[in-house]
Amino acid sequence: MAAYLIVDTKINDEEAYEEYKILAKPIVESYGGEYLVRGGYATISENELWTPTRLVVVRFPSREAVENFLSCDEYAPVKAIRHKYAQTTMTVVDGF
Fold it and tell me: How confident is the model at residue 28 (pLDDT cuts 50, 70, 90)?
C-alpha cells in the first residue's frame, strides 16, 4: 500500500534552502519516492486547525519506504540543512 509524506515548510532562507532541495530529491527517489506536489500556489479554503505555508507531497511505495528514507544515514546531513533553514511539520499518511 502506498504511503504519502506530507510536509509543510516555512523557509527562512530561500537561497540556502535550494541546496536542501537539490540534495534531497535523489535520496527520496532512491527510496521509491515520487514528488506529487513540491511547493506551488495553494488556496486555503478553511483553516480552523492549520494554515499551510509551502506544501510538499511525496508518494512512496509503502510506509516502510518512507520510514527508511527518513532514518537513512545519507539523509541525515541533508535533513540538518532543512532544520537550519526552515521549519517543518511532517506527517505520513497511508494511501491506497
Answer: very high
